[in-house]
Every structure is written in structure tokens, then in C-alpha cells.
Amino acid sequence: MSPGGLSGHFIAGGRGALFVLLREPDVATQACVIVVPAFAEEMNKCRRLVALVARELTRNGIAVLVPDLYGTGDSNGSFSEADWDTWQQDMGACVGWARQRGLEPAGLLGIRLGAALAIAAVESGTLPAVKRSVLLQPVFDGERFLSQFLRLRVAAMLMSQDRKETLAELRGQLKSRATIEVAGYPLTGKLTAGIDSAKPPDSLPAQLGEILWLEVVRELDVELPGPSQGLIDRSRAVGRTVKSTRCVGEPFWSSTEIVIVPEVIKSTVAAFTSIALSGPVPLAVTDVGWSNVP
Amino acid sequence: MDTLVRIKRILRDTLQLGDRAEKLNMDTRLLGGIPEFDSMAVVTVVTMVEDEFGLTVEDDELSAEVFSTVGSLVDFVSAKAGA
């Protein structure tokens, strides 16, 4: 099979067939970046940005694999059947499939809740260690994230004359295993319990390799939120290489219209192209851009 | 910086209002006034207000009154931030 181009595949996932999009460079390569998707509507807002990143990476000789997790996109299952463990297994399945094709998954691109999923998957051993990871506006606190997601339903009530539901009531319904619909997504107690289990780690796992942490801010003089800076500091203290970069732009994962932040694309591509992903793991990081500048 | 200016900027970025943001004033209607102001936008605005002003908006504080006009949102945020 000649390399190059964009191809869609159905592969065996944790519970059912997964649809994955593979973008390969025109030259033969082993290096592959796997995208760990954002949650629900956020991933839809990110698709164009992911496609542009993938196009740039393939121009630089790196293949990119974008999976639809079980119950999402064109993969098997419905959203109400999805759960956190299956999604971790799905990520593992992507790695296995890529290797069968002669690709070496050396980089992870974790977007929003995808960062938490990547951490859960490397810690459970479902995902192998990689050389470099880019965490895009990462989410680590599943419970807080879910509360913000549930707010969509609370906010929708503002638009109508319906009786107002509180977050606590929605949480209670989920606990009693009811399925509630939020922004068109049937949310189950099983899935939300899994997402709730994602806690901010003490430090970023070594299996993620060198990490680029990208946050989008409206102005450069806005500081990183305290919890984010704390996690970066603690990770560096235990020897992780973490670079944090702030890109000025609009929140592309939640904007009403599809938004592209060019700086995010540039930084992400640079992170994966500034080392030889297919080569051996370097003993020391030599490129200046990756020094631990506080 | 003036709360109104910061709120206008949050609304501009969330709703991609562009130049239309210049015309926002305290009396501009939000809910039912700006077509883009849907539930997703409400949540984004609340999240950005929390991040930018360093405050937490409780669930039971989300009401149609708060998002009635630019002015009602500014008053709400000013009261929260001053509290």
C-alpha cells in the first residue's frame, strides 16, 4: 500500500468497531501522533483545528490518527452506552492498530477532557509511554468539568418556562442511574461516574514524555489559573519536562462559531516536529525551546 | 479595568460579535435579544466570568434575570466580585 493521504478505517475497539481517521505523509514514516479526543460538543468545535494540525504534521512526515471513541462520531454504539473504561481501551486499541500498520505512536495530543483520559489510560497501562505529549487546554478535574457540562441543561432552562432544575438534582438523577439529556447528549450515571473519577494528579505521569501544555488566553498578561500552575510546578519538581505556552485567541472548544487559533496549530506542530519522533528517546533535551523556563 | 469593559470583551469573544460588541451598552438585551446567546453561550460566559474575575457562580444563582441585559450581568458580577 502506498503511503500518503487521508483514509478512514473501522478497527476493533474496547467494545465495538471504532472509526478512525488516519492522515499519512507522502513519505514512508513510522512516527505517529494519536489524538485523544475532547468530550461531546467540544470535540465537534475542535475538529477543524485538529484537521489543520494533522495536515501540518503530515507535511512534516508525521502520521496522525484521530479516533471516534465508542458511542461517538461514526464509531459503533450510542453515546448512552459509552463509559470511561471503554474509552481508555479504545485508545489502547488505536495504538495496537497503528503498530500493526508499521507506525509507532510516539506522541499524544490530548484535547480538553482528552488530557484526563490520556492520563487515566497511561496510568492503567492501556496506553504505552510516548516521547512527547501536547495537552490542549487540558481538563484534569472530571467532576468540575461535568458540573460545567451539566450547567448547559440548567442554562437551557433559562430559555424556557420549564421548572428550573438544580445541579444537585441532576447529580442525584445520574446517581440513581437515570439517563439525562444534556445539549443533545444522553448522559448516563455510568459514564459520569467514570468522568468524576478523573482527579487532578499530583504530577503529570512520566509516560506522557515531554509535555507541552497549551492554554488559550485572551491576553498574554493573564496568569495561568492557580491549579494549573501548581500542577506544572509539582510535575517539574519530580523531574518532568513541562513547557507551558499561552496562545492569544478565542476559546476554540466552546465558541459559538468554529474558531481557529493559529498559534495553537503552530505550537502543537512545533512540539511534535522539533524532535525525531521515530528515533530513539533522547537522553537529554537539547533544543532550547524545551528548557524548563519558569 | 471597568467591569462593563471586561464583560463586553467576554461577550464579544464568546459570541464572536466582532464590531457589534462596540454597540453593547448596559441596556442591551441578552436573552432573547442576541440570537447567538444560547445555553452554550450562557455556560461559556459564566465559565469565563469565573476564570477572569476569580469567583464561583453557584448553580442557583443562574437565572434569566441575570442574563436579561448587559447591565444585569455587570451588576451581578460586580456584586459577586465585591462580596
Structure description:
The complex is a heterodimer of chains A (294) and B (83). Chain A is of the alpha/beta class. Chain A has 2 domains: 5-140 and 203-290, Rossmann fold; 142-197, no CATH class. Chain A contains 8 helices and 10 strands. An 8-stranded mixed sheet of chain A has the order 1-2-4-3-5-6-9-10, with helices on both faces. In chain A, a hairpin with a 2-residue loop joins strand 7 (180-182) and strand 8 (185-187). In chain A, helix 1 crosses helix 8 (262-273) and helix 4 packs across helix 6 (189-196). Mean pLDDT of chain A is 89; it is low at 280-294. Chain B has a single domain, classed as Non-ribosomal Peptide Synthetase Peptidyl Carrier Protein, Chain A (Orthogonal Bundle). The model of chain B has no long low-confidence stretch (mean pLDDT 88). Chain B is built from 3 helices and no strands. In chain B, helix 1 (3-15) packs across helix 2 and helix 1 packs across helix 3 (70-82). Chain B has 83 residues and is an all-alpha fold. Helix content of chain B is 49%, strand content 0%. Chain B has helices at 3-15, 39-53, 70-82. At the A-B interface, helix 4 of A face helix 1 and helix 2 of B.
Question: Which sheet architecture does the biggest sheet of chain A show?
Answer: 8 strands, mixed
Strand content of chain A: 15-25%
Radius of gyration of chain B in whole Å, from Cα? 12 Å
Count of the separate structural domains of chain B: 1
Q: Uncertain spans of chain B, ≥5 residues at pLDDT below 50?
A: none
Strand proportion of chain B: under 5%
Structural class designation of chain A: alpha/beta
Strand-and-helix sequence of chain B, N→C? HHH
> What is the element string of chain A, with H for helices and E for strands?
EEEHEHEHEHHEEHEHEH
- Output the number of helix runs of chain B: 3
User: Measured on Cα atoms, how large is the radius of gyration of chain A?
Assistant: 19 Å
The end-to-end span of chain A amounts to 46 Å
- The tally of strands of chain A reads 10
| CATH architecture descriptor text of the largest domain in chain A | 3-Layer(aba) Sandwich
Poorly predicted tracts of residues of chain A: 280-294
Integer count of domains of chain A = 2
The first-level CATH class of chain B is given as Mainly Alpha
The spatial strand order of the largest sheet of chain A comes to 1-2-4-3-5-6-9-10
> What coarse outline of chain A follows from CA principal-axis ratios?
globular
Calculate the terminal CA-CA distance of chain B, rounded to whole Å. 17 Å
